[in-house]
Amino acid sequence: MAMETQEKIVLDARGSFCPGPLMELIRGIRQAKVGEIVEVWSSDQGSRKDIPFWVQKAGHELVGAFDEDGYARFVVRKVR
Amino acid sequence: MKKIVILGGGVGGTIVANLLAKRLRPEEAEITLVDRTGRHAYQPGYVYVAFGKTKPRTLTRDVRRLLRKRVRLVLGEATRIDPTDRQVHLADGRVLEYDRLVVALGARLTPEELPGFEEAAHHFYTPEAAVELREALAAFQGGTIVVTVASVPYKCPPAPAEAACQLDYYFTKRGIRDKVDIRFLSPLSRVFPIETLNPLVERVFADDNIRSTVFFNVESIDTKGKVVASIEGESVPFDLLVMVPPHRGAKVVEDSGLGDRGGWLPTDKHTLRTKAHADIFGVGDCTDLPVSKAGAAAHFQAKVVADAIVSDVRGLPATARYDGRVVCYCDAGRNRGISISFDYEHPPIPPKSLGLRAWLGKHFLNRAYWHLVPTGRV
To answer: Which CATH number does A2-77 carry?
Structure first.
């Protein structure tokens, strides 16, 4: 499910398993424009390692990873 | 009398049809299977076509011959599913009514989604492509071979790693392995999709001198310069590109508005009923189930769906649950194989090394498949 506000794409990947949330983020980054924020929600533990690792490798910016009730919210800015 | 319509004569559809024909009396239900081509393919064999070990004609059979007599076979293409009126419309104008519908249409290859794919990439996901790859390999005298996937999800997650190992074996046998650089590009954080088996596969790659790169999600193919580029910003040159094509769900699912963004059919992971319609079931590769897209998964799912439909027809509560079970064999060349078994709760336990026993298991299955699997015997 994707909700687009003015400058943020939010991808709810809760309930999908590794590598689902990472693949959602990659799809979101493909769609986003440079400077936009892509936020992915994941309940999969593997994402805590995979997502920051991928963001660094792909040269984007991890604005933050936030713990919510039963899931984590990863906020990423598309840099290039 | 209930009408049961099954779309697709692949592994899942054929097993569901045969199990229902065996268990439901003729006066209880009419069982109809719709297939576009009337041919059932053993897809794990395609990779062997690419390496010259088998011929495409050995990998298909008439669906009719695999089905029990009771099952009515309709040759045609479903173009629209109407869940409100419980009807399936076929391309030739025929309309089939159903009380229970099983969608087992598999995944659709969509090479057109990646510009340059059809021009530059080889693969082994159709018999025709596998034959072309076989010829390209035979003509190859040295250089860089890149093995990768266009996007996820795709059928048979271990297939690219299997192919990379088979390439090593193939060129070793030809005596030119030292002239061939095999590079494996993985979209994930590791080379093998299943985390528990990754260390083993990495070891095999090291032994086979296969160079791997992780987090390589293909962005574009430069067909003239022969370079594949990733969204992560890397570029890798190739002389021969072996790339699993992009996949989507079944067209009729998408055209009927029943699919998710990838065209996959949203399906309950335990009951296998579709999330939107309890009288429609999803089996195998066409679904969004969080398991491997593989015949071995469809095989176990088909039994659950057949159980549930028998219960529905008889007005009993359906208690069958799919536990996510998948069992499969991988062939890593050099007479080495691995058998993998897992479910939703239990990831596969990695063996210490690849072995002959699992390799023999794979080759036994390649032959025994026709007698054991579509019939619903195992």
So the answer is: 3.30.110.40
